[in-house]
Write a structure and sequence with these properties.
- The structure is a single chain.
- With 247 residues, the protein is an alpha/beta fold.
- The protein is built from nine helices and seven strands, in the order βαβαβαβαβααβαααβ.
- It has a seven-stranded parallel sheet with strand order 3-2-1-4-5-6-7, with helices on both faces.
- The structure holds NADP nicotinamide-adenine-dinucleotide phosphate (NAP).
- NADP nicotinamide-adenine-dinucleotide phosphate (NAP) binds next to helix 1, strand 2 and helix 7.
- Belongs to the short-chain dehydrogenases/reductases (SDR) family.
- This is SDR family oxidoreductase.
- InterPro entries: NAD(P)-bd_dom_sf (IPR036291), Sc_DH/Rdtase_CS (IPR020904), SDR_fam (IPR002347).
């Protein structure tokens, strides 16, 4: 059974990806930061389908907690085939001129450092040059890396720009180590993240401007993530799948 680690899988896109991964036969490591109950519900749904899953608490903005996360995977599963860097935060809409240093640190640590460090730990376990059997990494970026999200959250957009650069560079760096690195760039997906941005109803405000005239579902993003994580995308590395309703 292949093992997949999905960071931030207690709700939203991560939870949908965890459930789809289980349906596709993966043993799932469900990482979460705070919401123990929601993470356990995802695990219980997978167990009730006859799948295999565990919930692992770890704040991906902290290196020691990332090391703990991977050590639990080592001892429980003994291998890792796929990493989905999905955990991400958004803070209240404002102009850059009003953002303070503490906010920028939180944003860059959770969204950039977390993904970089998780990639590092995954490569140590997957690289064929380091005794591993290869694997796949999928970064969950955002359309914001293309738009820059002016007047809303340039800090968040910039972290997604960093994930895009990470995807391009790392895909080439580990291509001959049996590891493929790709990304999905969602937008306008119905999840709780928009409430964190201070506008829970943001998608409904914007949906007339989306070519498909609706927001997206977490399951629609999960399909793209799982395709990139699987052998079905075996000749693709360093690519981006936009799941944005045509925006
Ligand atoms: P969400 O519903 O807010 O869920 C975020 C998840 O990340 C939760 O499971 C949360 O865990 C976890 N998390 C947050 N900070 C963490 C940390 N420091 N360490 C570990 N886990 C952490 O978000 P979502 O909308 O599903 O977004 C998932 C990803 O898609 C993010 O990277 C986001 O930027 C990206 N994205 C979303 C959209 C959209 O429209 N929704 C669009 C573009 C990109 P707890 O609840 O346990 O704290």
């Amino acid at each position: 059974m292949k093992t997949i680690l999905i960071t931030g899988a207690s709700r939203g896109i991560g939870a949908a990806t965890a459930l789809l991964a289980a349906r596709n036969g993966y043993a799932v490591a469900v990482n979460y930061q705070k919401n123990h109950k929601a993470a356990n519900e995802v695990v219980n749904q997978i167990l009730s389908m006859g799948g295999e899953a565990i919930a692992i608490q770890a704040d991906v903005s902290k290196e020691d907690e990332i090391l703990h996360l991977f050590s639990v995977i080592d001892s429980r599963f003994g291998n890792l085939h796929c990493l989905v860097n999905n955990a991400g935060i958004l803070e209240h809409q404002m102009k850059l001129v009003d953002m303070d240093y503490a906010r920028l640190q939180r944003m860059f640590k959770a969204n950039i450092l977390g993904s970089f460090l998780c990639c590092k730990e995954a490569i140590k376990r997957m690289s064929t040059k380091l005794g591993g059997k290869g694997g796949t990494i999928v970064n969950v970026s955002s359309i914001a890396s293309r738009t820059g999200a002016p007047f809303e959250y340039i800090d968040y957009a910039a972290t997604k720009g960093a994930l895009d650069s990470l995807t391009i560079g790392l895909s080439k760096e580990v291509a001959d180590e049996g590891i493929r690195v790709n990304a999905v760039r969602p937008a306008f997906i119905y999840t709780d993240i928009h409430a964190d941005g201070g506008e829970p109803d943001r998608i409904n405000r914007l949906k007339e401007g989306i070519p498909l005239k609706r927001g997206g579902l977490t399951e629609e993003v999960a399909e793209a993530i799982l395709w990139l994580a699987s052998e079905k995308s075996s000749y693709s590395t360093g690519i981006f799948i936009d799941v944005t309703g045509g925006k």
